[in-house]
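Annex B, item 7. Sequence and structure tokens for protein A, then protein B.
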Amino acid sequence: MKRTLTTLFLALAVVLAPFGPAVLAKKQQDPSAQAAKVKADVIKRLNKKETHVKIRLRNGSQVMGHITQTGDDSFKLTEDKTGRSTDIAYADVQTLEGRGMSKTKKGLIAGGIVLGVAIAVIAYAFTHLFDD
């Protein structure tokens, strides 16, 4: 029985192995849609005065700085290290991240803490209140 299960598991692994890269591959977005999303995010951050960002460009480089100005096709970023201003096209941005944790991460951490405290209170109640 054990040998049969092992054989079936190995056969399944061999059959499913070629699908691994296909499952992990990211779906390519339309460059114009990605640029519009980045532009909306830059404008939103500038309006909220959350201008400190970390940007990963399509060529693989990473830039950190403050957004100072927006335009139709690009925005101006003042780099932290050098202090110089650089125009970056929206289409050249791969990812744009703000400073600190997102609200989702903060909410999940708070939820985990509340859940942990609730489990601790329930465990304490079971061990001390129902000790008859």
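Protein B:
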Amino acid sequence: MSCSVLVVDDDASFRDQATRMLAAWGYAVVGEAGTVEEAVAGTRELCPDVALVDIGLPDGDGLSLARRLGAMPRPPRVVLISTDADATTQSAARRAGASGFLPKDQLPSPAFRQLMDGG
């Protein structure tokens, strides 16, 4: 059974690119969201295994979203991403309840797949 993913990013073209990359790797992208509120609603409705979350969202940030998702009855594993490599640190990401953080340019890497798979 493949891992289900919710892609959360305010850039529709990035969501499309990430969806294609994840599908090529065998992940099942079950939904997309462009805002914090869409991500919360999508997580409640779709119950993804993983939420791939951009740090910068128009109605909040990925760190606070990670905390909200972590408080849900069936929380997804959260992987934080950003175009800004200095947007957060691994320790701040983990304190927020995320599995970790990676800059977007490192997505096609073994480290990313390890975070996605919970390793």
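Comment on protein B: The first helix runs from residue 12 to 24.
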